[in-house]
Amino acid sequence: MMRSLSLIAALVLSVAEGQVENDFASKLFNLWNLERPLTSFVQTTNMFTMDYGLHEEVELANIRAEIFTEECKYPRLTNGIASKYIDTQGALVFEIEPEILSTNDKVFNSVGYPDKAVMKLCLRYGLWSGPETDENAIEVNYRETILTIDIDLSKGFELDGFSVIPSEIDGDKGNIADREGYAVAGYLCDPYTYEKIPSKGFAQGEFIAICSELSGAAAEDGVFLKGVDYFYWTREFTLGGVPTTTIQYAVKDGVVANMLTEYDCPRGAVFCSFKTMLFADFFTTPGSVFGTGQVSMQFGGEEESRRRLAEKSNLRSLQQEEADVGASGLSIAVPLITLKDRPGMVGTAGGASNKIFDLICIISSFVSAILIFA
Fold it and tell me: Last residue of a domain, which of 167, 194, 219?
């Protein structure tokens, strides 16, 4: 705690004297920086884990995490949150109770969703200069995110997907997309024709393709896609009594993450797509894989469209070339087919097609090993 306060005091003093050193500022930034949370979910226990990339020198006692309704305002949300704690790595871990949360109209919304419902929570994760027992502790940095949970009511209260986006309300850029109703629709598509396809099980060695396009009034108002900011696949399961998490990025920081993904999204497009071959580890046991991501939008293209939108929204920033609109979250749950689930894959009657499939599996496993240990 004293070290943290000393760093803050030193930074203030340096700024006052105009002598901030780049290396010192960089170290301080890295110490208190919070990444966009890497989110995972265990369906059997309704347990979420939010990893903010905490610096190893930050003491766990200096972390304060709270859960609210979507407005991110007090009082805290406790009814429907079965448990909440900070794990040894600094990640926020909490268990939800969907049936209880469904009784809260500030969290649960089923209007306009046949057999579907949406729950939204605000998660606030803050770093302080000292523990809660320290009356002089100050908050150094925090991050608020909105967790959107899709519920399939036709199967009871089964989670059908989730997304995590920043909670930003900062004037010109804040929630243009929300205010104007601009959104991006993401869906499973054929990896070669890119036509929308119904949900189905995917086997190891197959591409899972995700397509996204503008929806609502966005296309009519001259909004374009800026690109996929990030998208990753995650799966948690228990193997031999040990909890295991497998994560694979398809797109990271706006670019393709590795050689197992093909990504096509030119800036200013109206349609984006990427397809990924998952690591072999995802197919260890039966279940589903969850995909989470974010797509950014921009005003661009026709000058007249930008001018008209600027007048409509009364925002000077909209008159700038390719002004940011905001972002839309993507989430999807995809069932996986393990080796024993595939027809003809048990016993010795697989034939040549089985050998080809086995070869694909081996290649996929080999590539995933290269990517992990590179």
Answer: 167
